[in-house]
Amino acid sequence: MIPLRRLIAVVIAVPLLLALAACSPEEGRRIDVIAGERTDGAMYFEPAELTVAPGERVTFYIRNDGTGDHEFESDEAGIDEVVIPRQKTRKVSWTAPKSGDYPVYCDITGHRAAGMELTIHVAPQ
Ligand SMILES: [Cu+2]
Questions:
Q1: Has residue 31 been placed in a domain?
Q2: How far apart are CA 108 and CA 55, in angstroms?
Q3: Based on the structure, what is the number of domains in the chain?
Q4: Quick check: is 14 in a domain?
Q5: From the CA of 103, how far away is ligand 1's center (Å)?
Q6: For residue 125, what pLDDT band results from cuts at 50, 70 and 90?
Q7: What is the pTM of this model?
Q8: For the domain that residue 86 is a member of, what is the CATH number?
């Protein structure tokens, strides 16, 4: 049998940890981005440009409205690659670097060339 004291500790600790995970202050500002393809073969991120402050913490919620997988990443800005399966949403949290313009793109062959790129302007607000 599980000692009662340990059982009580688990009953209290598990919901507490779940609550902390659910409302993470680490996410910062939410920015929604849509990835997709147009009927003429062009590919896009919407919005194609956005602005954040230096050092600002943000979480991108990237929704893939397309028919194939897409990626969201930036070596220049330090955004780790995230793969978004078609019709799914994935999120990636990031802290903006110093002021400048940074490209974010889909690194799947041909996609960036087809227009799947957005520009993040990092500038004081
Ligand atoms: Cu893509």
A1: yes
A2: 29
A3: 1
A4: no
A5: 14
A6: confident
A7: 0.80
A8: 2.60.40.420
Q: How many angstroms is it from 48 CA to the middle of ligand 1? A: 14
Distance 30 CA to ligand 1 centre (A): 21
**Pairing between β-strand 100-105 and β-strand 43-46 as defined by DSSP bridges:** unpaired
Taking phi first (over 0 means left), then psi (-120 to 50 degrees means alpha), and beta for anything else, what does residue 55 get? left
Query: Cα 37 from chain centroid?
Result: 19
Output the CA 78–ligand 1 centroid distance in Å: 18
In a domain, 90, yes or no: yes
Q: What is the pLDDT of residue 100?
A: 98
Ligand 1 center from residue 70 Cα (angstroms): 4
- pLDDT tens-place string over residues 54-105: 999 999 999 999 999 999 999 999 999 999 999 999 999 999 999 999 999 9
